[in-house]
């Protein structure tokens, strides 16, 4: 419903994975190409990506997919956490779809 408020209607899905929650319409399997790394204590992302397989189509016109969730410390800002979602489907000319916002706790631990 949120996507339809900006004119996007989900019209196609190509994935074998089940959604992990009833709150989500689509699930994507994590592939073996995943190379995300982090330090454990405290949790600190280092780099790499979590790669998923599958595609979704909006309005019978735009297909995106083979998503990856990556981290790049150079993308960290007041509003961005450094995590981003990218479309790695070949041939559609899209790359980074959006940055994932920075929660207030990441920007200012005093607020938490």
Strand content: 35-45%
- The general outline is globular
Helix/strand-derived class?
mainly beta
Overall pLDDT level: 82
Textual characterization of the structure:
The structure is a single chain. By secondary structure, the chain is mostly beta strands. Helices cover 4% and strands 41% of the residues. The chain contains 1 helix and 10 strands. The chain has a 5-stranded antiparallel β-sheet with strand order 2-5-8-9-10, with no helix packed on it. A 3-stranded antiparallel β-sheet has the order 1-6-7, with no helix packed on it. Strand 8 and strand 9 form a beta hairpin. The chain is globular, with a radius of gyration of 16 Å. The C terminus is likely disordered.
Features:
globular; 1 helix; single chain; mainly beta; disordered C terminus; three-stranded antiparallel β-sheet; five-stranded antiparallel β-sheet; 41% strand; 112 residues
Question: How are the SSEs placed, and which strands pair?
Answer:
Elements: E1 10-14, E2 29-30, E3 37-39, E4 44-47, E5 49-53, E6 55-58, E7 62-65, E8 67-71, E9 80-87, E10 96-101, H1 104-107
Antiparallel strand pairs: 1-6, 2-5, 3-4, 5-8, 6-7, 8-9, 9-10
């Amino acid at each position: 419903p949120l996507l339809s408020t900006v004119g996007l209607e989900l019209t196609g899905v190509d994935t074998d994975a089940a959604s992990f929650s009833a709150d989500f319409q689509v699930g994507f399997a994590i592939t073996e190409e995943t190379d995300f790394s982090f330090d454990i204590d405290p949790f600190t992302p280092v780099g790499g990506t979590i790669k998923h397989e599958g595609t979704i189509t909006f309005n019978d016109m735009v297909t995106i997919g083979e998503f990856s969730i990556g981290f790049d410390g150079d993308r960290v800002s007041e509003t961005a956490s450094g995590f981003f979602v990218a479309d790695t489907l070949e041939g559609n000319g899209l790359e980074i779809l959006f940055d994932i916002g920075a929660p207030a706790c990441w920007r200012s631990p005093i607020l938490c």
